[in-house]
Amino acid sequence: MLVHRKWVLLAPGCVGLCSRSFSSSSDRPPRSTCSIYGRPKKNDNESLQCTREDGTDGSRHYVYRDNGGNVLYSFPSVTTILNSTRSTSDMFRMKVWTKGQIEKYGIERFKANRLRIINEGKAFHAEIADFLASNSSSSFTDSNTSEYFNSIRELLINDITDVKLCEENVLHEELGYAGTVDCLAKYKGKTCVIDWKTSQSPKSDLFDYPLQAVAYAGAINNMGQHKVDNLLIVVTCSGTPPLVKHFNVKECTELWEQWIDRLEYYQTKSYN
Q1: Is the pLDDT assigned to residue 43 strictly greater than 50?
Q2: From start to end residue, where is composition biased (Basic and acidic residues) (predicted)?
């Protein structure tokens, strides 16, 4: 077994092994030393530079370098791990959906639609970040995403407070993954990792969104500056109320187990 499953809070700075690229099973960190929380102590003056590097296979890695440009870590993104460990049925449904879209629109329009959705998502996230920083949407001018924003405006104004992080890179040095967290803030008084999603149609299925969020929660806790054990997933759809789902501590514990299963599977595939 590769990593520790226990959802407990240890004091920041507890020593453990850092996950890197391991060449064999004997090099992998034992579960007993890989707690979800407890970051290996680093030089407080060290400033890590992070770049996101995309592979030709669609994967993404977060590469961390020191001030001298030396690579310290190269960790797969949370979304890369989740995309690589989907169930057979999920992958089949995705292939069927993709094939249907291509047959309906043609390959070029399909690619254009996919790019538009990606760009709208980026613009939507940027507008939320700007709003939370200034508490004003007066500069909101993107007509393609304004309805997404309007659907969550009241939630942002009434329920989201004490923003700690917004569109920040996070990493779990011990378990060897990284990502970009949408938001860390209080939702109705509870500190939550918040994940903003857009959808072209109303959704009831959250897919792997909760696993993505709980992975970020583990990384944030391991980094030591904040403590979080609640999640909030907000799925917006133009013209309809958003789907808002809160996950408490108990639910996060269950989600963490599922995330560790996926992470172990990904690591096993990578090592073999």
Answers
A1: no
A2: 41-56
Query: In this predicted model, what pLDDT tens digit does every residue of 96-134 receive, in sequence order?
Result: 989 998 999 999 999 999 898 888 889 889 999 999 988
Domain map (residue ranges) of the chain: 25-271
Q: Answer whether residue 138 shows pLDDT above 60.
A: no
Catalytic residue ranges? 182, 195, 197
Q: Mark residue 13 as left, alpha or beta (left: phi above 0; alpha: psi -120 to 50; beta: remaining).
A: left
Gap between the Cα atoms of 165 and 94, Å rounded: 32
Average pLDDT along the chain: 81
Asked if 175 contacts 34 with a C-beta cutoff of 8 angstroms, the reply is yes
Per-residue confidence (pLDDT) for residue 185, from 0 to 100: 98
> How confident is the model at residue 142, as a pLDDT?
59
Q: Is the pLDDT of residue 33 over 80?
A: no
User: What is the per-residue pLDDT for 180?
Assistant: 96
Q: Using alpha carbons only, how large is the chain's radius of gyration in Å?
A: 19
Q: Are 256 and 214 in contact (CB under 8 A)?
A: yes
